[in-house]
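ok trying again, last paste got cut off:
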Amino acid sequence: MPDKDPCALIKGIAKKMCENDWEPEGGSDPDGGGGGGITEGASGHVKDLAESLIKTLRGLLAPKAGWAPEEADNPVYAQFLWLGQHLAVAILICVIVVCALTAWQGAPRLRQLGASTGWTLAAVAGMASVPGVVMLLNRAVASAFTTAFDSDQSTLLKTISKDLNRDGNPVAILVIISALVVALAFAALVFMTRQLGILVFVCMAPLVLASLARGGDTSAVRAWAMRLLGLMFAPFALLLVSPFVPMVKGSLVMEAVLLVAADALMLRMIFHGIPYFGPKIAGAARGFVESRTTNPLARAVVRAGSPDFYEQENQPRMPRTVDTPGRAAHQDRGVLFAAYGIKQQKQRSSRLTTASAIDKSQREAPRNQQLIEARRAARAAAAQPTTPGPRTPAQGRGPAARTQAPAAGAPGPAPVRPPNP
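nice, full thing came through this time. structure:
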């Protein structure tokens, strides 16, 4: 049995070297005057690396295939589809029962029954079509983004590819590769968050569409659609750098600056485009960069992409507030007097009883103590005096010290005469 070719699994120049059939592109010159050799090979590999980074960057920002299910019979989506359809039918049955029990109201109940039936059929049909619609829209977004960002010589990625083949400055090539690597990290973060967000919102579609069965209230569907479309169209924010591409064309360093601006835009895309967790993710990325570099430019870029913000949280579950018997009777008395045409007195403001106020203060004591300590620390930092600098002999300490001494031989000040008696 013949031996296997040892060079079969090797590709490119290395395979030719393995087969002893390789010559430099400039020809074999024993004196080294051909201008080829290892230097040109290394430069070619660096350019190939840059092209590979550009291709990967394009695929991460606008992928043609996503993680979301593409068909309704997908094993993951099928579970949510079954739940949504049964939920819509259950709501329709409840509406039918209510309309049957209140059929004496006539036309309003008939209209409600018709609207509920129509919207239920529309919701069930829409549940099965959501994956296909999202898939087609995702492909359209990817094609449009590729056309606008990497279609001809006036777009950023094509301009970088052209300048890489024309510019032989190794420093500029290293700068653009570094910028591409950083942009690739942000693009990977955008890709992960977008794909996970689209997957979650597509799986939520049957549960959201089932809310239409009650009578056509589209508020939940509109909120769901706005967040999903925001996720899908987020990459178009990078088109803000397109008008500046012709200005920097021909300079790899300035194109690297545009890539840095694109990094800030990608971080801002996460901040505003990812629902619920976007500010948290962008803030974590900013903290990661700031904890590992002291470069003011890098810190300014991540601060532009993830600005400072305050968070609001839901108030923890607190005991309900009820009126005392006297206050409840006073309110009902005002309602009774108003029914007789007697002008009601001005409503009295409410306050907690002593026991309730004590219980509330004890419940909120830890948080209030933290706020008091934070304010005290802030006031102490603001009131801390600054250390004055050393004074020069010419600087005085008061009005008398700022008065210059009289020169030698000059007459002194006139003596002060006592007043006449």
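cool. The chain has 15 helices and no strands. Residues 241 and 388 are 48 Å apart (CA to CA).
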